[in-house]
Amino acid sequence: MAQARNQTKPLGLLAELTHRCPLGCPYCSNPLTLERREDELDTATWARVCLEAAELGVLQVHLSGGEPGSRRDLVEIAASARRAGLYTNLITSGVGITARTMRDLWEAGLDHVQLSIQDSDAISADHIAGYKGAFQRKHALATEAVRLGLMLTINFVVHRANVDRIIEMVDLALALKASRIEIAHVQYYGWALKNRSALMPTREQVDRAVTSVEDLRRKHQGRIVIDAVLPDYHARFPKPCVGGWGRRSLNVTPSGKVLPCHAAESIPDLEFWNVRDRSLADIWASSPAFNAFRGTAYLPEPCASCERREIDFGGCRCQAFLLTGDARATDPVCHLSPDHDLVAKVAEIHTDAPYHYRR
Amino acid sequence: MADDFTIAPGAKPRLPRGVRLTHSEAQGGWVLLAPERIFKADAIAFEILRRCTGEATFDALVDDLARTFDAPRERIHADVTKLLASLAEKKLLEL
User: Fold this and answer.
1) Which stretches in chain A have pLDDT values below 50?
2) CB within 8 A of A42, min separation 6: which ones?
3) What are the helix (H) ranges across A118-182?
4) Quick one: pLDDT at residue A171?
5) DSSP E strands: which ranges in chain B?
6) What is the pTM of this model?
7) Which residues of B touch A114 (CB under 8 A)?
8) Residue B26 at interface with chain A, using a CB cutoff of 8 Å
9) ipTM (interface predicted TM)
């Protein structure tokens, strides 16, 4: 087995506890083929995964899904994560978590809540989520989390239908007493890729959004932290996806597969190992999927001689595959990529087709 | 961050729930864990942060550090202000 060189320790674990979710967001980051409830890891296995993650050096665990509140043992899993010493973050849609569960999570030692809201406008938000009344329930959950003294981040995924309302989104986050807001442009994998032309913002919208975020940061400095995930189809350089393949984070799926990033299964022929069969440390060090794109030695030109090689690691492997058919290629989002015109063309395609909701 | 950031002498700096100082063997030292953020805390930052419990006042904290490290109070005052101001601005510290 080839031993990866320059192996680093992971800092973060994305724990996808379930793919079940009451919402149907058309940009959901879960794969098109959702894992089934009967294949989900049990409570004890998640507790072991948390312990092994902490031993491996992981500092933060993100309890996610799907909607993690769909699991009846969410509180027990959160308590295990906290006992393992991990900084425990709940990533929730807010639908399916009652005030009682929130209180139990608080008692279990939960560190932080990240709540997604689909838009600042209630009707639009419920339309995007494909769930009537979702907006109201999110509001209630945010209020409860803050009442308990938990730090709250509101996450807004932005796209053509809502990107013109960033000011209102920040106002809403302030009204909910969030300490942090994420304005995340849609990333086109899985469901979002399927809905790409219906979600794609125009160049003008993107430019306005970028300026708006800068203005809002100045205006609200010290009151709320505004983090932005850039719209990479409109960027000049690619994102350093997950901080580099197999460098800083790992993702465990509901059935226990360990992935370098949540979209990694979109690359064919990668061999993923499972926490049911092996320890997390063994998987991190030796899993073929983790070693497939570690480091930068495999990168072709223009990355091989690029000074940004250790900054963005050639961009995202999944995106390279999805757009060029070659997972080793330069991420075509980069303006230096020979395939960059593919991205430029796609970014111009806008259709008002109904969403394919995630179901 | 504004250079003119001042902290009231009687303020009681406190790391809120959701911001934790913890030791990490893998990282070889102390780290401050916060929402979607991990900051490495050097020896000086650690000594400052571990005193931010919401009990000691800012003034007492500076006095304590100046005494413990036998350093000029003015310099300690400036260093502590700088660190705490940058954390407060990121909503990672209550003053």
Assistant:
1) 1-5
2) none
3) 122-129, 134-147, 166-175
4) 98
5) 20-24, 29-34, 37-41
6) 0.95
7) 35
8) yes
9) 0.92
